[in-house]
Amino acid sequence: MSPTASLLAQRSSRMTASEIRELLKLLDRPGLISFAGGIPNPALFDMEAFQQAYARALGQAKGGRSSLQYSTSEGYLPLRQWIAEHMATKGVRCEPDNILITCGSQQGLDFVGKLLLDPGDTVVTAAPTYLGALQAFNAYEPRYDTLSGNGTANLLRTSAEVHGSRVKLIYLVPDFANPSGATLDLASRERALDIAGELGCLIVEDAAYTALRYDGEDLPPIAALDQKRRGSIEKSLTLYCGTFSKTLSPGLRVGWVCGPKPLLYRLTLAKQAADLHSSTINQVAMHEVALARFDDQVAAARTCYRERRDVMLASLERHAPDGMVWTRPEGGLFVWVTLPEGIDGRRLLERAVDEQNVAFVPGQAFFPDRSGANTLRLSFSLPDPQTIEEGIARLCTVIRSSLPTRR
Ligand SMILES: Cc1ncc(COP(=O)(O)O)c(C=O)c1O
């Protein structure tokens, strides 16, 4: 044991390395086809727009200096204005003061956990759910319940009470979720609001992939439905976490939380304590690129990812053995696979990398209760269409050869 181990706070035992990040370190083998990453395709980054934006931010006599200076914890006002207008197009009417800029939406999730969760409080999530949210919340030592198809407020309340706990928040990724690719239909969004209302808890709506829709109609965010019910964002029980990571660039680390002002004020205090404010120049540059390029960039991303999703789904149709099922996402970056009975995702990964030089993320890490051993997540964001076809064929070869032999 390390000599400092006894100094660590108890909660640090729940801060474990993201299995995905650990896994990514192993994936630099030559010729490896990886469906593991789930990061945006860098070919989509608008290098020229960002170069110009940074040059302009640094070049102006007065503006240049302020973009290298400390700035406010709430975030760069023109960017918050842009986001408030963007939120209005989705039916969430709000002011810049309803927006806090965070260092990616990941930081928003951490602050929400910090603000709401005492040890033992209950967080309700989907299962599977975004691993990064579990990691962010885990530091605040909650317990988890899952919002299954027939979950009711009563069941959730009772389950929490049995553990001497109270439900504080429901965490949902309503559009093209990571990892499942699933989208909540309108009735499920309304039902989540009913349940939150009955429990008196918040909904944390993680909208990381909302812009990346390839078919079908946009659905209103839960935040918009909530506002419609209650008449104003100030009465809303929803905190909406948005990000530029999947549309313009993840590297600048610019996300936001949108919600009622009293909660936003508290979150701003958490921001102040954590890092004072997000990078000034990155916010200035993001604002300029969003203003000039957001719609075009989203359109380009949709075209690129739609083609890759279609190729992945068609390849699965062609190569998958009986007993393997997968989701058909309307957007986002992920297809979620349930393997034929008896195949373990982790063991399959070892064989897939060794025998066929193809990788994915085993699904278990995405379940708060560590179930889901026979699941895996495939991302179609990085490989080109031909490589996707080849990779799925290789993966299905390993799955086929892993099928338990029937006697
Ligand atoms: C569902 C979901 N939420 C939030 C994030 C965090 O994104 P960022 O912090 O880059 O905004 C991710 C990143 O992959 C994600 O998949």
Automatic annotation (TrEMBL):
It comes from the Bacteria. The keyword Nuclease does not apply. InterPro entries: Aminotransferase_I/II_large, Class-I_PLP-dep_aminotransf, PyrdxlP-dep_Trfase, PyrdxlP-dep_Trfase_major, PyrdxlP-dep_Trfase_small. One of its GO terms (biological process) is alpha-amino acid metabolic process. Residues 55-395 form the Aminotransferase class I/classII large domain. One of its GO terms (molecular function) is transaminase activity. Its cofactor is pyridoxal 5'-phosphate. The keyword Transferase applies. Gene3D superfamilies: Aspartate Aminotransferase, domain 1 (3.90.1150.10), Type I PLP-dependent aspartate aminotransferase-like (Major domain) (3.40.640.10). Keywords: Aminotransferase, Pyridoxal phosphate, Transferase. Homodimer. Belongs to the class-I pyridoxal-phosphate-dependent aminotransferase family. This is 8-amino-7-oxononanoate synthase. It comes from Microvirga makkahensis. The lineage of its organism: Bacteria, Pseudomonadati, Pseudomonadota, Alphaproteobacteria, Hyphomicrobiales.
